[in-house]
Amino acid sequence: MAAIVAMACLATGVLAEGPQDRATSFATCTGRWSAVMEHEWLMGRDGSEAEMRRATFVTLLEAAMPDPAVDAPDLLHLRIAAKHALAHLLQQADLGTDPATARRARAMARNQLAPCRTLLLG
């Protein structure tokens, strides 16, 4: 499954060719979908779509990791940083008191998720 998704992503130009680049993309998207999932839960919403997408990226990340013993700590750090950055935007978008700031945060959050949406078919 990971190979098929990776080939499709290469064809669309979303991912670079190397395994480390794929792992970096998958780690970033895992973190971002983790933020969406948790934000949905905190806001009293279902979050099942985000949970499914996050689980898919976890699987892809595990399959794409070139050398887990070496790469796992760096990729985990990347996941956490991506999650934290998107969580901050989602909080500003939904809980911020300034409408202009909330709109900008919402747009930035959408822009951060767009490449991750592109990586998954359907």
From TrEMBL:
<protein>
    <submittedName>
        <fullName>Uncharacterized protein</fullName>
    </submittedName>
</protein>
